[in-house]
Protein backbone atom coordinates (compact mmCIF):
# COMPACT_ATOMS: atom_id res chain seq x y z
CA UNK A 1 0.00 0.00 0.00
CA UNK A 2 1.31 3.46 -0.85
CA UNK A 3 2.26 5.47 2.23
CA UNK A 4 0.59 8.76 3.16
CA UNK A 5 3.15 10.10 5.60
CA UNK A 6 3.63 13.79 4.88
CA UNK A 7 4.28 15.82 8.06
CA UNK A 8 3.37 19.47 8.52
CA UNK A 9 5.11 22.17 6.54
CA UNK A 10 7.05 23.23 9.62
CA UNK A 11 8.33 19.71 10.19
CA UNK A 12 9.41 19.44 6.58
CA UNK A 13 11.36 22.68 6.79
CA UNK A 14 13.18 21.39 9.87
CA UNK A 15 13.87 18.06 8.20
CA UNK A 16 15.24 19.53 4.99
CA UNK A 17 17.15 22.55 6.15
CA UNK A 18 18.59 20.86 9.23
CA UNK A 19 21.35 23.17 10.47
CA UNK A 20 20.20 22.27 13.95
CA UNK A 21 21.92 18.94 14.33
CA UNK A 22 23.52 19.87 17.64
CA UNK A 23 20.26 20.53 19.47
CA UNK A 24 19.09 18.15 22.15
CA UNK A 25 15.54 17.78 20.86
CA UNK A 26 14.45 14.26 19.85
CA UNK A 27 15.30 13.36 16.24
CA UNK A 28 12.27 14.17 14.06
CA UNK A 29 10.51 11.44 12.15
CA UNK A 30 11.97 11.03 8.65
CA UNK A 31 10.11 12.73 5.83
CA UNK A 32 9.01 9.98 3.43
CA UNK A 33 8.91 10.76 -0.27
CA UNK A 34 7.58 8.24 -2.77
CA UNK A 35 8.71 8.74 -6.38
CA UNK A 36 6.33 7.28 -8.99
CA UNK A 37 8.31 6.06 -12.01
CA UNK A 38 7.44 3.29 -14.49
CA UNK A 39 8.67 -0.11 -15.67
CA UNK A 40 11.97 -1.37 -14.23
CA UNK A 41 13.47 -1.36 -17.73
CA UNK A 42 12.17 2.12 -18.56
CA UNK A 43 13.98 5.45 -18.19
CA UNK A 44 11.74 6.83 -15.43
CA UNK A 45 12.73 3.99 -13.11
CA UNK A 46 16.47 4.35 -13.78
CA UNK A 47 16.26 8.12 -13.36
CA UNK A 48 14.16 7.74 -10.20
CA UNK A 49 16.59 5.29 -8.61
CA UNK A 50 19.54 7.62 -9.19
CA UNK A 51 17.56 10.60 -7.87
CA UNK A 52 16.47 8.62 -4.81
CA UNK A 53 20.10 7.82 -4.02
CA UNK A 54 21.04 11.51 -4.17
CA UNK A 55 18.08 12.62 -2.04
CA UNK A 56 18.78 10.05 0.67
CA UNK A 57 22.48 10.93 0.71
CA UNK A 58 22.14 14.71 0.70
CA UNK A 59 19.02 15.22 2.84
CA UNK A 60 19.63 13.15 6.00
CA UNK A 61 16.10 13.41 7.41
CA UNK A 62 14.38 12.59 4.11
CA UNK A 63 13.80 8.99 3.02
CA UNK A 64 12.91 8.61 -0.64
CA UNK A 65 11.50 5.44 -2.16
CA UNK A 66 10.94 4.51 -5.82
CA UNK A 67 7.66 2.96 -6.96
CA UNK A 68 7.15 0.85 -10.08
CA UNK A 69 4.03 2.07 -11.91
CA UNK A 70 2.46 2.05 -15.37
CA UNK A 71 4.02 5.53 -15.76
CA UNK A 72 2.68 8.95 -16.76
CA UNK A 73 -1.11 8.93 -16.35
CA UNK A 74 -0.97 6.81 -13.21
CA UNK A 75 1.87 8.92 -11.81
CA UNK A 76 -0.08 12.16 -12.23
CA UNK A 77 -3.13 10.60 -10.61
CA UNK A 78 -1.09 9.39 -7.65
CA UNK A 79 0.66 12.74 -7.16
CA UNK A 80 -2.52 14.75 -7.65
CA UNK A 81 -4.39 12.67 -5.07
CA UNK A 82 -1.57 12.94 -2.52
CA UNK A 83 -0.82 9.22 -2.53
CA UNK A 84 2.76 9.86 -3.65
CA UNK A 85 4.86 12.99 -3.48
CA UNK A 86 6.82 13.03 -6.77
CA UNK A 87 6.39 11.49 -10.19
CA UNK A 88 7.47 11.57 -13.81
CA UNK A 89 5.00 12.32 -16.58
CA UNK A 90 4.75 13.13 -20.26
CA UNK A 91 3.53 16.63 -21.09
CA UNK A 92 0.76 15.52 -23.43
CA UNK A 93 -1.45 14.15 -20.66
CA UNK A 94 -1.34 17.28 -18.50
CA UNK A 95 -4.20 19.44 -19.89
CA UNK A 96 -6.73 16.96 -18.45
CA UNK A 97 -5.23 16.67 -14.95
CA UNK A 98 -6.64 19.72 -13.17
CA UNK A 99 -4.54 21.85 -10.84
CA UNK A 100 -3.36 19.48 -8.11
CA UNK A 101 0.16 19.02 -9.48
CA UNK A 102 3.03 21.42 -10.17
CA UNK A 103 6.27 21.04 -12.11
CA UNK A 104 9.74 20.77 -10.62
CA UNK A 105 11.46 20.63 -14.00
CA UNK A 106 11.25 19.62 -17.61
CA UNK A 107 13.75 16.78 -17.49
CA UNK A 108 14.16 15.50 -21.08
CA UNK A 109 12.11 14.45 -24.12
CA UNK A 110 10.43 11.07 -24.53
CA UNK A 111 10.81 9.68 -28.05
CA UNK A 112 8.11 7.39 -29.40
CA UNK A 113 9.55 4.03 -30.46
CA UNK A 114 7.60 1.77 -32.81
CA UNK A 115 9.49 -1.52 -32.61
CA UNK A 116 9.01 -4.34 -35.14
CA UNK A 117 10.80 -7.50 -36.23
CA UNK A 118 13.43 -6.81 -38.89
CA UNK A 119 12.10 -9.69 -41.04
CA UNK A 120 8.45 -8.69 -40.56
CA UNK A 121 6.04 -6.87 -42.89
CA UNK A 122 5.74 -3.60 -40.96
CA UNK A 123 7.95 -0.91 -42.52
CA UNK A 124 5.75 2.15 -42.10
CA UNK A 125 2.89 3.10 -39.81
CA UNK A 126 0.21 2.22 -42.39
CA UNK A 127 1.49 -1.38 -42.43
CA UNK A 128 -0.02 -1.88 -38.95
CA UNK A 129 -3.47 -2.15 -40.53
CA UNK A 130 -4.93 -5.56 -39.70
CA UNK A 131 -2.01 -6.45 -37.44
CA UNK A 132 -1.55 -6.82 -33.68
CA UNK A 133 0.23 -3.99 -31.89
CA UNK A 134 0.82 -3.24 -28.22
CA UNK A 135 0.07 0.40 -27.44
CA UNK A 136 1.36 0.28 -23.86
CA UNK A 137 -0.20 -0.46 -20.51
CA UNK A 138 -3.41 1.31 -19.44
CA UNK A 139 -2.44 4.40 -17.45
CA UNK A 140 0.83 4.92 -19.31
CA UNK A 141 1.86 7.96 -21.33
CA UNK A 142 2.83 5.58 -24.14
CA UNK A 143 -0.79 4.44 -24.45
CA UNK A 144 -2.02 8.02 -24.74
CA UNK A 145 0.51 9.03 -27.39
CA UNK A 146 0.22 5.76 -29.36
CA UNK A 147 -3.57 5.85 -29.47
CA UNK A 148 -3.50 9.47 -30.60
CA UNK A 149 -1.06 8.54 -33.35
CA UNK A 150 -3.27 5.68 -34.53
CA UNK A 151 -6.20 8.07 -34.53
CA UNK A 152 -4.56 10.71 -36.74
CA UNK A 153 -3.28 7.94 -39.06
CA UNK A 154 -6.85 6.58 -39.36
CA UNK A 155 -5.81 3.28 -37.79
CA UNK A 156 -8.00 3.42 -34.70
CA UNK A 157 -11.06 1.30 -33.96
CA UNK A 158 -10.97 -2.06 -35.69
CA UNK A 159 -8.18 -1.10 -38.11
CA UNK A 160 -5.56 -2.74 -35.87
CA UNK A 161 -5.71 -5.41 -33.19
CA UNK A 162 -4.71 -3.54 -30.05
CA UNK A 163 -2.94 -5.18 -27.14
CA UNK A 164 -2.31 -3.25 -23.90
CA UNK A 165 0.99 -4.54 -22.57
CA UNK A 166 3.66 -2.85 -20.51
CA UNK A 167 7.16 -2.41 -21.87
CA UNK A 168 8.67 -5.67 -20.67
CA UNK A 169 5.65 -7.73 -21.69
CA UNK A 170 5.56 -6.01 -25.10
CA UNK A 171 9.19 -6.85 -25.80
CA UNK A 172 8.64 -10.46 -24.81
CA UNK A 173 5.47 -10.72 -26.91
CA UNK A 174 7.31 -9.41 -29.98
CA UNK A 175 10.13 -11.91 -29.43
CA UNK A 176 7.58 -14.72 -29.09
CA UNK A 177 5.72 -13.71 -32.26
CA UNK A 178 2.52 -12.89 -30.37
CA UNK A 179 2.38 -9.31 -31.65
CA UNK A 180 3.63 -7.60 -34.81
CA UNK A 181 4.80 -4.36 -33.19
CA UNK A 182 4.85 -2.34 -30.01
CA UNK A 183 5.03 1.30 -29.03
CA UNK A 184 7.07 2.73 -26.19
CA UNK A 185 7.69 6.37 -25.35
CA UNK A 186 10.95 7.00 -23.49
CA UNK A 187 14.29 8.73 -23.53
CA UNK A 188 16.75 6.69 -25.58
CA UNK A 189 18.45 4.38 -25.01
CA UNK A 190 15.60 2.32 -23.57
CA UNK A 191 17.02 -0.71 -21.78
CA UNK A 192 14.30 -3.10 -22.94
CA UNK A 193 14.90 -2.11 -26.58
CA UNK A 194 18.67 -2.54 -26.13
CA UNK A 195 18.06 -6.03 -24.74
CA UNK A 196 15.81 -6.87 -27.69
CA UNK A 197 18.49 -5.71 -30.15
CA UNK A 198 20.87 -8.19 -28.52
CA UNK A 199 18.30 -10.99 -28.68
CA UNK A 200 16.88 -10.71 -32.21
CA UNK A 201 16.88 -8.60 -35.41
CA UNK A 202 14.52 -5.64 -35.01
CA UNK A 203 14.03 -2.21 -36.52
CA UNK A 204 12.39 1.10 -35.59
CA UNK A 205 9.69 2.56 -37.80
CA UNK A 206 9.90 6.16 -39.04
CA UNK A 207 7.22 8.36 -37.42
CA UNK A 208 8.46 11.94 -37.86
CA UNK A 209 5.90 12.77 -40.55
CA UNK A 210 3.15 12.41 -37.93
CA UNK A 211 4.40 15.12 -35.58
CA UNK A 212 2.53 17.97 -37.27
CA UNK A 213 -0.81 16.11 -37.47
CA UNK A 214 -0.52 15.35 -33.75
CA UNK A 215 0.25 18.99 -32.99
CA UNK A 216 -2.75 20.16 -35.00
CA UNK A 217 -5.26 17.72 -33.52
CA UNK A 218 -4.03 17.31 -29.96
CA UNK A 219 -1.21 19.37 -28.52
CA UNK A 220 1.60 21.70 -29.49
CA UNK A 221 3.92 19.92 -27.04
CA UNK A 222 4.81 17.37 -29.75
CA UNK A 223 8.07 17.88 -31.66
CA UNK A 224 10.20 15.76 -34.00
CA UNK A 225 13.46 14.24 -32.79
CA UNK A 226 15.97 11.81 -34.31
CA UNK A 227 17.12 8.44 -32.99
CA UNK A 228 20.56 8.11 -34.61
CA UNK A 229 22.16 4.77 -35.42
CA UNK A 230 24.60 5.27 -32.54
CA UNK A 231 21.82 4.67 -29.99
CA UNK A 232 20.83 1.09 -30.84
CA UNK A 233 22.97 0.22 -33.86
CA UNK A 234 19.84 0.35 -36.04
CA UNK A 235 18.97 2.48 -39.06
CA UNK A 236 18.42 6.10 -37.96
CA UNK A 237 14.87 7.44 -37.84
CA UNK A 238 12.92 10.57 -37.03
CA UNK A 239 10.04 10.20 -34.60
CA UNK A 240 7.51 12.01 -32.42
CA UNK A 241 8.88 13.42 -29.18
CA UNK A 242 7.04 14.55 -26.07
CA UNK A 243 8.62 16.54 -23.20
CA UNK A 244 8.38 15.00 -19.78
CA UNK A 245 8.42 16.55 -16.36
CA UNK A 246 9.13 15.77 -12.74
CA UNK A 247 6.02 16.83 -10.82
CA UNK A 248 4.99 17.27 -7.19
CA UNK A 249 1.78 17.94 -5.31
CA UNK A 250 0.67 21.56 -5.42
CA UNK A 251 0.63 21.72 -1.61
CA UNK A 252 4.17 20.40 -1.02
CA UNK A 253 6.11 22.90 1.15
CA UNK A 254 8.16 25.40 -0.81
CA UNK A 255 11.41 24.80 1.10
CA UNK A 256 11.34 21.07 0.43
CA UNK A 257 10.68 21.57 -3.29
CA UNK A 258 13.50 24.13 -3.39
CA UNK A 259 15.90 21.51 -2.01
CA UNK A 260 14.65 18.80 -4.37
CA UNK A 261 15.10 21.15 -7.34
CA UNK A 262 18.58 22.10 -6.17
CA UNK A 263 19.63 18.45 -5.99
CA UNK A 264 18.18 17.74 -9.42
CA UNK A 265 20.24 20.52 -10.99
CA UNK A 266 23.45 20.31 -8.95
CA UNK A 267 23.81 16.54 -9.42
CA UNK A 268 22.71 16.28 -13.04
CA UNK A 269 26.11 14.89 -14.04
CA UNK A 270 25.63 12.03 -11.57
CA UNK A 271 22.11 11.46 -12.89
CA UNK A 272 23.56 11.40 -16.41
CA UNK A 273 25.86 8.54 -15.45
CA UNK A 274 22.75 6.51 -14.54
CA UNK A 275 21.11 7.32 -17.89
CA UNK A 276 22.14 9.65 -20.74
CA UNK A 277 18.64 11.20 -20.91
CA UNK A 278 18.99 12.44 -17.34
CA UNK A 279 22.26 14.12 -18.22
CA UNK A 280 20.44 16.48 -20.61
CA UNK A 281 19.00 18.46 -17.71
CA UNK A 282 19.79 22.16 -17.66
CA UNK A 283 18.19 25.14 -15.91
CA UNK A 284 17.34 26.94 -19.17
CA UNK A 285 15.14 24.14 -20.51
CA UNK A 286 13.98 22.92 -17.10
CA UNK A 287 11.70 25.93 -16.59
CA UNK A 288 9.79 25.31 -19.86
CA UNK A 289 6.96 23.27 -18.30
CA UNK A 290 3.85 24.50 -20.14
CA UNK A 291 0.99 23.77 -19.71
CA UNK A 292 1.94 23.06 -16.08
CA UNK A 293 3.18 25.91 -13.83
CA UNK A 294 6.34 25.52 -11.79
CA UNK A 295 5.93 24.88 -8.08
CA UNK A 296 6.82 28.09 -6.17
CA UNK A 297 9.72 26.30 -4.46
CA UNK A 298 11.16 25.25 -7.82
CA UNK A 299 10.63 28.72 -9.27
CA UNK A 300 12.49 30.24 -6.29
CA UNK A 301 15.46 27.95 -6.93
CA UNK A 302 15.69 28.86 -10.63
CA UNK A 303 15.40 32.53 -9.74
CA UNK A 304 18.25 32.15 -7.22
CA UNK A 305 20.69 30.93 -9.88
CA UNK A 306 19.62 33.32 -12.60
CA UNK A 307 22.62 35.36 -13.83
Strand % is: 15-25%
By DSSP (H or I, 4+ residues per run), the number of helices equals 12
Largest sheet: 10 strands, mixed
Number of domains as seen in the coordinates:
2
How helical, in percent, are the residues?
Answer: 25-40%
The residue ranges in which pLDDT falls below 50 over 5 or more consecutive positions are 1-6
Distance between the termini: 44 Å
Chain-wise SSE layout:
Blueprint: H1 9-17, E1 31-36, H2 43-58, E2 62-67, H3 72-80, E3 86-90, E4 101-117, E5 132-134, H4 141-152, E6 161-163, H5 167-175, E7 181-186, H6 191-199, E8 202-204, H7 211-217, E9 223-227, H8 229-232, E10 237-249, H9 254-266, H10 268-274, H11 283-286, H12 296-304
Parallel strand pairs: 1-2, 1-3, 5-6, 5-7
Antiparallel strand pairs: 3-10, 4-7, 4-8, 4-10, 9-10
Helix pairs in contact: 5-6, 9-12
Please name the defining characteristics of this protein.
307 residues, alpha/beta, D-Maltodextrin-Binding Protein, domain 2, 2 domains, 12 helices, 35% helix, disordered N terminus, C4-dicarboxylate ABC transporter substrate-binding protein, TRAP_TAXI
Structure, described:
The structure is a single chain. The chain is of the alpha/beta class and 307 residues long. It folds into two domains: 9-21 and 28-108 and 244-304, D-Maltodextrin-Binding Protein, domain 2 (3-Layer(aba) Sandwich), CATH 3.40.190.10; 111-242, Periplasmic binding protein-like II (D-Maltodextrin-Binding Protein, domain 2, 3-Layer(aba) Sandwich), CATH 3.40.190. The chain is built from twelve helices and ten strands. It has helices at residues 9-17, 43-58, 72-80, 141-152, 167-175, 191-199, 211-217, 229-232, 254-266, 268-274, 283-286, 296-304, and strands spanning 31-36, 62-67, 86-90, 101-117, 132-134, 161-163, 181-186, 202-204, 223-227, 237-249. Strands 1, 2, 3, 4, 5, 6, 7, 8, 9 and 10 form a ten-stranded mixed sheet that branches. α2 (43-58) links the parallel β1 (31-36) and β2 (62-67). α5 (167-175) runs parallel beside α6 (191-199). The longest helix has 16 residues, at 43-58. It is elongated. Mean pLDDT is 90; it is low at 1-6. Residues 1-24 form the signal peptide. This is C4-dicarboxylate ABC transporter substrate-binding protein. It comes from Catellatospora coxensis. Keywords: Signal. It holds the Pfam family NMT1_3.
